[in-house]
Design goal:
The chain contains 13 helices and six strands. The chain is α+β, with helices and mostly antiparallel strands.
């Protein structure tokens, strides 16, 4: 259940923007006044934390009724807030350091800020994504995030071809690159990978992670045609071997990450930085961007 008196401090701990705290605190009173909403929140939390810590565990929330008004865009945030005691208990059980737990869950505030940047009001951008954080599947370790995941057929085949013992379904670490956290420097990436090796060996010793993977537009090899060799993005690419190539267009990925909204018209995109120019000019010239799929041995 939500503790209304503690809610503002909890929101601050989760890096929720100050401008959203009053609205979240005011709307939370509805869960006390409306028993049906309180029941829906409880069922949603139980769905989120079922088999907490399980890689790819079940997590299908109940549907939201119509007519919730402003509460609809905030409802996933209240679910994560009410799930906090379960998440923190799981972190304690695993011995997760407090600073890592705090920075991991603070990604909630970043996604709320992204929602406002893209849509002009408060809410949670990609609520399904935050389930990984609150279920103990994903951790922020320095500049990068690492998700406990399982190898797919194509990536495991590529790893085996390189002499690495890997089978479909084996544990792996899926690497993610959050924005709004500074440059993607080689030093920051090396530090994060080193932290990941130590962190998962210590806190998840029963899961042997031999391979790290990444599925991102940042691994699109076409970026080599647009960026200098010294670019942080190209140096990031060189961490990985190619697992497989995708032929499905993903133009919205770089537009969303670089400019804040994947729906922006290409003709209106600014070209102030080298990455902005690379993304925009490639699209204006009729090209498309694709997700790259890479891996490296841990």
């Amino acid at each position: 259940m939500l503790l209304l008196d503690d809610l503002p401090e909890t929101l601050l701990d989760l890096a929720v923007p100050h401008e959203d705290i009053n609205e979240l605190t005011a709307l939370a009173a509805r869960f006390t006044a409306e028993p049906e909403l309180a029941g829906l929140l409880e069922r949603s939390v139980l769905a989120l934390v079922e088999d907490i810590g399980t890689i790819g565990g079940p997590c299908e929330p109940p549907p939201l009724p119509k007519g919730l008004g402003d509460l609809e865009r905030w409802f996933p945030v209240y679910v994560t807030l009410a799930a906090l005691p379960y998440t923190r208990a799981y972190h304690r059980e695993r011995g997760i350091p407090e600073d890592i737990a705090r920075r991991t869950l603070a990604d909630l505030g970043r996604h709320i800020a992204l929602h406002r940047r893209r849509r002009g009001n408060g809410g949670l951008n990609a609520p399904h994504w935050l389930r990984l954080h609150f279920r103990g599947e994903l951790y922020q370790l320095g500049r990068l995030q690492f998700q406990r995941a399982r190898l797919g057929e194509r990536t495991s085949r590529a790893a085996r071809a390189a002499g690495v013992e890997a089978e479909p379904g084996d544990p792996c670490l899926n690497l993610h690159i959050p924005d709004c956290l500074g440059p993607l420097t080689p030093r920051a990436c090396a530090d994060s990978v080193a932290r990941a090796r130590t962190f998962f060996a210590r806190h998840f010793p029963e899961e042997r992670f031999r391979v790290a993977t990444c599925h991102s537009w940042l691994l699109d090899e076409q970026l080599r045609d647009h960026l200098p060799e010294s670019s942080n993005i190209l140096r990031f690419q060189r961490l990985f071997r190619t697992a497989y190539r995708s032929d499905e267009q993903a133009d919205g990925e770089p537009v969303g990450f670089v400019f804040g909204d994947p729906r922006l018209p290409v003709a209106d995109l600014p070209q102030r930085t080298s990455v902005q120019r690379a993304v925009t000019r490639h699209l204006l010239n009729g090209g498309h961007w694709y997700l790259g799929h890479g891996w490296f041995e841990l």
